[in-house]
Amino acid sequence: MNATLEKTRTFDTKNVILTRISEDDLQSFLVDSDIDENNNTIFRFPELVEAIIKTVPEYVFAEYCSSPISMTNAVERLKEAAKSIYKIKEYELMKKAYIDNDSSARHELEQLPVNKRGEFGELILHMMLRDFHGTIPLVSKAYFKDSVGVPAHGFDSVHISPIDKILWLGESKFYKNGKKGIKALVDDVKNHFVKDYLNEQITIIKKNLECNSIPQRNEWIETLNSTSKLIDQFKMINIPLLCTYEHDIYDCYSDLDTDEAFTYHETNIRELKTYFDTENTHPCNPRLNIVLLLFPIQDKDKLVKMLHQKLWHMQNI
């Protein structure tokens, strides 16, 4: 792991997220712990929520440098970003179900596929790429939204490495069960990294870049225009696949820095990686630059509820 990135995290400035395994095709993370005034172990959920919510303005607007957000308009921009998230129906349903305890909203939510429920996986992926890989968003994630109330399509993240000239097209899943999340990611690889789909998404990205002011804008337009062969596209693309899921390590160990806790964590991570490798039968697999990101958490429902509480407050500040 790049030591400089560890010291200059964009969102996780309090170093709430611990890196446990860091390999070319596999990374794992845990939530850090602390103690309360009674010497009881607590996991830093509030700080994690704060780090994730900090991503919202950049995630929505793709403003990462020379940002128009200033002391005079910061509050309005934060409110605008939060409102943009809630224009997506699934996030609005999640808010009604988790915050308002609306039974009809919860029932409607349960009828949706798990990966269509607005559960912040994309924001977590955005944060992981920025803080642990030093990427910047190439376009706003709203680039795939067709109109107000229509859920976003396409990749969950579209980032670049400015120095290495790598395009990061990522997918994220937020499941209670890790293997189910992995299986959904495998399906995304199978369906999204094929010629027709990839060319369609690159066309949409190029269209968005025409009204974008990021550094290297013209260079990326030229690169995307000139790279039409699938073999060349795969060479310039990294594929980060994030699975955030529930795991009992937080209940089994109060001290995550022990050898026993690390062994327990690594066993779980290696098992999921083996499952991914077995299930991922993409015919171009040797050419795909996949990085599997595994992030076990203690309680999915609790985290989602806290995120919605914070986001709803942001919208109404």
Radius of gyration: 19 Å
Overall number of domains: 1
Averaging pLDDT over every residue, what do you get? Answer: 85
Number of separate helices:
14
How many individual β-strands? 9
How far the N terminus sits from the C terminus, by CA atoms, comes to 37 Å
How is the quaternary structure best described? single chain
Structural class: alpha/beta
- Helical fraction: 40-55%
Mind describing the biggest β-sheet?
7 strands, mixed
- Spatially, the strands of the biggest sheet line up as 1-2-9-8-7-6-5
Order of helices and strands: HEEEEHHHHHHEEEHHHHEHHEH
Short summary:
The protein is α/β, with parallel strands linked by helices. It contains 14 helices and 9 strands.
How does this structure look, described?
Helix 4 crosses helix 14. The protein has one domain. The strands form 2 sheets. The chain has a 7-stranded mixed beta sheet, sandwiched between helices. Strands 3-4 form a two-stranded antiparallel sheet. By secondary structure, it is of the alpha/beta class. The radius of gyration is 19 Å and the shape is globular.
Q: What labels describe this entry?
A:
alpha/beta, two-stranded antiparallel sheet, 317 residues
Question: What is the element layout, followed by pairings?
Answer:
Blueprint: H1 3-7, E1 17-23, E2 26-31, E3 33-35, E4 41-43, H2 45-53, H3 56-61, H4 74-86, H5 89-98, H6 103-110, H7 121-133, E5 136-137, E6 157-161, E7 166-175, H8 178-192, H9 195-209, H10 217-226, H11 230-236, E8 237-246, H12 249-252, H13 259-279, E9 289-297, H14 300-315
Parallel strand pairs: 2-9, 7-8, 8-9
Antiparallel strand pairs: 1-2, 3-4, 5-6, 6-7
Helix pairs in contact: 2-14, 4-14, 5-6, 8-13, 9-10
